Please model this.
Amino acid sequence: APALANAAASKESFNLKMTNAYPPGSPFYVQGPGSPMDFCKKVGEMSGGRLNISHFAAGELIPALEGFDAVSQGTVEMNAANAYFWAGKIPAAQFFTTVPFGLNTQGMMAWLYQGGGLKLWHELYEPYGLVAFPMGNTGVQMTGWFRDPIETVSDLEGLKMRIPGLAGKVYSELGVTVRLLPGGEIFPALERGVIDAAEFVGPYQDRRLGLHKAAKNYYTTGWHEPTNVTELLINKKVWDSMPKDLQMIIQMAAQASVLESLSWSEANNADALTDLVQNEGVIAKPLPAPIVSRLKEVTADTLLTMANADAQTKKVYDAYMAFKDKHASWAALSEKPLLNM
Amino acid sequence: MVGNEWLVIGMIVGFLGLMIIGIPVAISLAVSGFVAGYLGFGSTLFSLMPARLYGVVTNYTLLAIPLFVFMGVMLEKSKVAENMLETIGKAMGGVNGGMGLAIILVGVLMGASTGIVGATVVTVGLLTLPVLMRRGYSPSVSCGTICASGTLGQIIPPSLVLILLSDIVGESVGALFAAAFIPGLILAAIYIAYLLLLGVFKKDMVPAIPQEERAQTSGRQLAKDLMAHVMPPLLLVIAVLGSIVGGIAAPTEAASMGALGALLIAIATKRMTPALLKETLHGTLVISAMVFFILLCAQPFALAFRGLGGENMVHALFEMLPGGEFGAILFLMALLFVLGFFLEWIEISYIALPMFLPVFMNYGTDMVWLAIMVAMNLQMSFLTPPFGWALFFLKGVAPKGITTRDIYVGALPFVALQLLALVVLFQFPSLVTWLPEAIGW
Amino acid sequence: MRTAIKGLEWLVEQMGGLARFCVLVLVLLVATNVILRYLFSIGPVSLQELEWHLVSPIALLGLAYSMKHRADVRIDFLYERFSVRGQAVVDVVASLLTVAIGAIIAWLALNYVSHSYQLGEGSPDPGGLGMRYLLKAFIPLGFFLLVIQGVADMLRGLVQFFEPEDPVELPESLNTETA
Ligand code: NA
Ligand code: NA
Model:
């Protein structure tokens, strides 16, 4: 009977709504190769019009961060965002976007697709009636823009920085004053020195915000976001009601978007960085090693404290760290010598 | 879909009808939105409502509303504002329209610290309308001047409109801020010129303070008064702007410097009493909540407009787009203007702009210039009767005796002046593009 | 009926008192945060979040309060030409619609709040404020108060309609005249 039902259902078509945590027009997060709008278009064409997804950027239907509730309650069927936005609801969710000093993009994909990560993610979201898939990746992000050069750990003391989330918590342990600011106020605040430093995304997105006009020291090592996974959230009832072929189309289109958005980011960041350094007088350099190692120590403590706060987070943390250790020893032997050549 | 189009039209007509018979604007918006949305969708659409309401009351930039309103109410209750305007009026001597100029300047200065129409119109209205009325200014000219100067904050950076537009057109916030600076000042200059001309040709509409009364104040006394009455509020404006420019506060939180400053001025001038504080808090709450009431009740309306495919109607109009860059711009401007009659600017920006952008990108239109044209146009819609938000907000704080008609009639000349500014920017795009290029933003 | 009006409006006034207090706290808090950060580089995430958390009670508890004090914006071309009874009819219709809107939104929002409560939702930022459902609870509370005020206004309108020569006193309206 299930086979028959599937055959019948395969003629069924779905009209779905997808909301997005990012504002209209944003490259990568909303439009462009491998973006959520591109995903909707791909799915429509692959399914011969049986999956018709209307996309709504942040604020068009609901505010930026309301997608989780809306999809969970079924008022919207899909949402595009980053899992760490839901940290206030499910602390463990942030492991599925990025972890400071955690897996890089290759490692993250390996964990999610082959190392049991995706299964854990689904387990975690099951009680909320949700299914999630990776649908994009920015690749490694940048430490951020600093008005003055940072030479030693003590330079961080009293520094005012715009940086949200876990990384903000780590910085604050080193004496940084964390300032939360909406995207639009980052530029005026940095330009006038209300804040001394700001983290945003990477060269392409940061240039678009004009941050290089406000500060010239552009630091690297994306210790705080060594990768960044875009999350496709789907209402589980809707997902379960779909025939196998449509489910497969969604999964494959999401995987294709990961590849496409990542390669788009890598290529565009390379161009943007060259432009910033050659034409805009930006000084791009890595954070000094002593600062990085201090940040690493504090991060380890912070993550452990967070993991021990609840059982669910501990479970995800353990699985993530076990995979990371395994992957690190392989990467140390394979990628690292290659990059150092 | 054809049925839904009629629902959208019915919703707009229903809103208009309820409003005309005297149902509060906020309630009219919500009722028409709920009814049309329900007819089109049943109850499903509105399960998204709470999320939208939550988005309004937790919007960081809207913090500026209670803060600026507090500043305005405090300055009004402690008579600081009144003394300031009277003194400026005297200092202007026989120049008719002098106090009107002061209001434009206040609008420019306040506009440079916030971009929220509700906050500025209400504050400027509270501060100046009673004094203008007592000084024999025509009610409509007073109201028009206040609404126009209160909306200047939209175009003078920093501004919410520009921040949102920067995201939509994909130019940096800094570039748009720099680009809007000269157009903002041009607009203010056009207003000032208009008031001065009124002062020459219709002097009874904007009378100077009578010679006999000015004669009672000696030059020395006037200088003293200027120090005593004009300096404190001026310092306040400097505190707000200075805290942004000096890197002390981000744009939104700078409003708190104004609020704190007003509190300190009241204490320093020995006017602070528990009763005054209570009255100020009362006034701030009532006015801020009034602004939020409209913003909240606009949500069902906007949601229904979206849900019923209102944007598809806009899209259909867009298909009729005449050829050429000039035609496209003309059409965009007309469309924004009409949408501004019944939609909030945020909705307009989301609905209309993303559709037009690819067209203009094809023409190679300068996106910074286009964004400023759009911002100027949206600003015009704030002032346009019958649905301009600025007009509603002023009505909310206007003293008895000011009618809706006064406000509407007063706003019209300023709408025409904004149209003039738009034409100027269209003819001379370098007014927009020069500054960002010169300072390299 | 007059007692009922008084009783309902007493509740709105009390909640308004709480919101007035929030206004004062907001002014002092934002200013303090700016000064502490500038002078001493102190800026806890929790105090930054508290800034915009205070907007919610101000906006929502203030809805009914601003209606009670007649600060609702209305277009009065026709209204001011109506007779006292005609105005009373418009007032009763407006208050009925207010009750309906308030009730619908309060009811819709209850589910939203309970969902947040079940999740034990807090801030996504470490160091942020917990119990976000309390913040969200101001939505149904604020619109419930609007229903209360709507009922009071409806009763007042009815009194006005049936006894136009002996109307119920309006609460002290917002006086913006400096004279
Ligand atoms: Na502004
Ligand atoms: Na308008």
